[in-house]
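Running this now, will post back.
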Amino acid sequence: MYIQNHLLTGKYCGRNARRLHCDKHGGQLVCPDTIVLHYTEGADALSSAHYLARADSDSSAHLVIARDGGIIQLLPFDTIAWHAGKSEHEGRTNLNRYSIGIEMDNAGQLHRREGRFYSWFNREYMPDEVYTDYVNGHISYWHNYTLAQIQAVFAVCKLLLGEYPIQYIVGHSDISRRKVDPGPAFPMEKFRHQLLLYHTLHTPR
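Update: finished.
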């Protein structure tokens, strides 16, 4: 898999990235230096991608990554997507103007009822799909990410670091106080460290 004309091209794990037409964007994205990771908080990758592409929804993204590692591209990487909303990072606001938005298929925070776990749309999740977070004595439950999904996001981010002047890999919660995604179930610090280490080791000097 590689990037050609700001689109993912070729196969990842034997599959081509799927493309879904989306008209919702803010014009040309010049020299993106930030990758923003989100969760969809939806039922599955395809339905979330279709929602993001719908004319009557107010957001869009460059990619949606499925739980099995499948990739759906909605917008070229040189196009401003509406994923960051009201945001601030490193002294800049409106991060849509500087960033590539990647949505990961994940139901987000779960709720426990009578020992069982449910999403906001009332789908039940098995205990092995649940990440339990403990903060200051408070317990919360989150939909786990899959290894295949994390590996696909890593592979895409490696390509982006090789193609664009990326300096920052952040979660939506890092740039917007009102957001919590990608949530504690995503290993952000480890992911960011390994990605930047890989890029450093494989960048010609």
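The longest strand covers residues 34-39. More later if anyone needs it.
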